[in-house]
Design brief:
Layout (H helix, E strand, L loop, with lengths): L2 E4 L2 E4 L6 H7 L6 E2 L6 E2 L14 E3 L3 E3 L10 E4 L6 H13 L7 H5 L1 H11 L14 E12 L3 H12 L4 E5 L21 H14 L3 E4 L2 E6 L2 E5 L3 E12 L3 E2 L13 E3 H9 L5 E7 L3 H9 L5 E6 L4 E5 L6 E4 L4 E2 L3 E5 L3 E2 L2 H5 L4 E4 L2 E4 L12 E3 L10 H14 L3 H16 L1
Parallel strand pairs: 1-7, 8-9, 8-13, 9-10, 13-25, 15-21, 16-17, 16-21
Antiparallel strand pairs: 1-2, 3-4, 5-6, 5-7, 11-12, 12-13, 14-22, 18-19, 19-20, 23-24
Helix pairs in contact: 2-4, 5-6, 5-10, 7-8, 10-11
Organism: Candidatus Marsarchaeota G1 archaeon OSP_B
InterPro entries: FAD/NAD-bd_sf (IPR036188), FAD/NAD-binding_dom (IPR023753), Metab_Enz_Cyan_OpOx_G3PDH (IPR051691)
Protein name: FAD/NAD(P)-binding domain-containing protein
Length: 426
């Protein structure tokens, strides 16, 4: 098994363990320093992936995104989490010049000084030793590109494949399924979410549907896109695109909400799947998904869960990482992890970039779409919880309907839309 080395700490992990999970298991939750005052920061959520999110320095490789980097051999990591001279100076004078000290006052009067402070606070010096990696270039051509391999994306792929329409499914995670990929909880006909996902991906592969996982999905415009993998850049051409980017929980507005150890419910499932979540955790429960998360985490050995309603929490306590929670009744709870499960919002960035409009309704962002998932933007469709309308089982049915509608199989699309209406009424 590959060994991870961080300073004097070292431990062996199963082959292809994500780097962020291994670091969390070692107790290294603070992975880097923020630009603002050099405060310690950690991974809070892995539902979104960005090609430039390279935060951790791996010897012999350079700065990497720890959520994408997999342990294949012995790996040595350097973490610089302490406050630098630049961040200490900024913090010392911040009370006089406001929170935007680094980015406003100094920028106006002395850019050179500000530049050095920001660079110092951002933990960037190691980047100078990074040797750029040559990416090979490949091409992908398909009739329909599906961005997102969760329930909705896979549902759409099933429908398209049944109608003989060529499609490619891409997902940022190393495993398909979105937030349900590690959810060992009953879904359809008693089958768990995770098993359902595995079986669906297996069936799609057998049927010849192309899938790409662990890739960053880039700009889409007029039938062209860029997909960035670990060592390859795919130039993608397509006729139509379905955004099935899912939804995510948003960090609650609480004191201490940026401390390492504050994690989303989706990320908690990832860590728990790899047995990296131990100790005491508080589950901040605002969304029905929290009930599923609680039942899954409750079965994990070495993990104690306390679920509370948002109205009960006043602040998250800790200096460099989560150490406890202050409740509104004055009581303090000692916990190692603060897991937030707030009302879910659609992952709207890519659809919005493509021109799809969203509006804010009843506390949720909702895409302006037609019943079949089509939008006012030509050849752009949205499926599942990325719409802001559907979740879980309904999301899967909507993906099925969108796939059939795009394939112009109106009868089958209508069946799933009717099933959706019944689900919503229930």
């Amino acid at each position: 098994m590959p060994k991870l080395i961080v300073g004097k700490k070292r431990a062996e992990f199963p082959y292809l363990t994500p780097l962020d999970v291994a670091l969390y298991s070692l107790g290294e939750r603070a992975l880097y320093s923020s630009v603002k005052f050099g405060r310690a920061r950690g991974i809070m959520d892995d539902s979104m992936r960005y090609g430039h999110n390279k935060r951790v320095y791996v010897e012999g490789r350079g700065l990497v995104d720890p959520t994408c980097f997999l342990l294949e051999k012995d790996t040595s990591v350097k973490l610089e989490k302490g406050a630098t001279i630049g961040s200490r100076i900024a913090k010392r004078f911040s009370e006089h010049f406001g929170a935007g000290f680094q980015n406003s006052f100094l920028l106006r009067i002395a850019w050179k000084l500000a530049q050095n402070l920001v660079a110092s606070s951002a933990n960037l010096p190691l980047a100078s030793t990074f040797s750029s990696k040559n990416f090979r270039v490949s091409s992908i051509s398909t009739k329909v590109l599906i961005v997102g391999g969760g329930l909705a994306g896979l549902g759409a792929a099933l429908s398209l494949n049944e109608c003989g329409v060529d499609c490619v499914v891409v997902d940022a995670h190393n495993d398909f399924g979105g937030r349900t990929r590690y959810a060992t909880y009953p879904f359809l006909n008693g089958v768990t979410y995770s098993d359902f996902i595995k079986e669906t991906v297996k069936n799609l592969t057998i049927r010849g549907v192309r899938t790409l996982s662990g890739v960053f999905c880039g700009v889409y415009e007029e039938g062209a896109g860029v997909i960035l993998g670990h060592d390859v850049v795919y130039k993608c051409s397509f006729e139509k695109i379905i955004f099935a980017t899912g939804s995510r929980s948003v960090v609650p507005l609480l004191t201490g909400n940026d401390l390492p150890g504050v994690i989303s419910c989706d990320y908690a499932l990832t860590l728990a799947h790899h047995d990296a979540l131990k100790g005491k955790a508080l589950l901040y429960s605002e969304d029905p998904w929290a009930d599923v998360v609680e039942q899954i985490l409750a079965r994990k050995e070495g993990l104690e869960i306390t679920k509370v309603h948002p109205t009960e929490v006043k602040a998250i306590l800790g200096k460099n990482e989560v150490q406890g929670v202050l409740l509104n009744n004055g009581k303090r709870l000692r916990v190692n992890h603060f897991i937030y499960c707030t009302k879910r919002q659609p992952s709207f960035e890519l659809p919005s970039q493509a021109g799809v409009e969203y509006s804010y309704q009843r506390g949720i962002l909702m895409a302006n779409i037609f019943d079949d998932g089509s939008t006012r933007v030509k050849n752009v469709w949205i499926a599942g919880s990325a719409t802001g309308l559907f979740e879980l089982e309904s999301s899967f049915y909507h993906g099925r309907a969108v796939g059939y509608a795009l394939a112009e199989n109106k009868e089958e699309a209508k069946k799933f839309l009717e099933k959706l209406k019944k689900e919503i009424l229930l």
